[in-house]
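[agent] plan:
  1. take the single chain provided in the ticket
  2. run structure prediction with default settings
  3. attach structure tokens to the ticket
  4. add a short note for the reviewer (M.T.)
[agent] executing step 1
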Amino acid sequence: MSATAGIPKAELHVHLEGTARPALVRRIAERNGVALPAGLFADDDTFAWRDFLDFLRSYDLAASIIRTGEDYRDITYEYLRDCAREGAVYVELIASLDHGAAVGLPDDEHLAGIAQGIDDAHAETGIVGRIISSCVRNFGVEAAEAVAERTLALDHPYVVGFNMAGDEAGYPPGPYARAFAMAAEAGLGCSVHAGEHAGAESVRQALGLPGLTRISHGVRAIEDPALVAELAGRGIVLEVCPTSNVALGVFPSYEAHPLARLHEAGVTITLGSDDPPYFATSIGHEYEVAHERFGLDLDTLRGFTENALDAAFSPREVIAGVRRRLTGG
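[agent] step 2 finished; step 3 output follows
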């Protein structure tokens, strides 16, 4: 058994469509009578992709199979169930209304399916899940603002945050400020993908977005020591996904990855799996990697879980309930 198996875990960075394993994608395709896109799989258990942009293509192909609220329920339930088996107590799932709309799924049915999966997993395991609504930057500024508007119109109690994903290098964050302002003014927590496939300047620009308290990835901030100090000083939380970063070539190896250096510099760190079946990982594996490959001790990893609960976008009473479960209260 891994030394980290008994540590309670919390995850703030995982893309919902990106949690569906190939076997589940195949089951959903059969149920929906949808042909699997050519080139989606490298083999029975592996998605096919070559680099970051090709990964986005593969992700979108798999997401195109997901058509109904029932599909989203199954994906959500199975992921949260598996997380609970690894000791996770809280997960925020990044969901894309645009991916649902692209296959004709109404927003309310989309979120209802996710919420049912959250409720079913909670009833079975006790794990708590919540939703972050994400826009896709390469769909354009107007589309991002429309996602913010649609998210707010739904006013779903499980939607606690707003994020922006997609092609970071081609679409700097500044023009999307209005979408974030809308979300922040409505009380949603805000995070954004930055400092992954673009450098430290991407992180610095992201810090100008309204309401921002977390950065998805943010690891290339290490290229600018002054920026690292600013992140630490401001208490900006980084949602770090080491295995994803290595798999996608952001860093050539775990040894080159700056997780430990960022932590030592005082930056607040949480761990995430990003798109686990694409990178042969899980939230449990990320804690193992942090311990075995980065040499972080178990108390530090417990601190990462505490960081995630402190930085969670859920109402404080929800997080208090999670903490009570951890302490047996």
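[agent] step 4 note for reviewer: The chain has one domain: 9-327.
[agent] ticket updated
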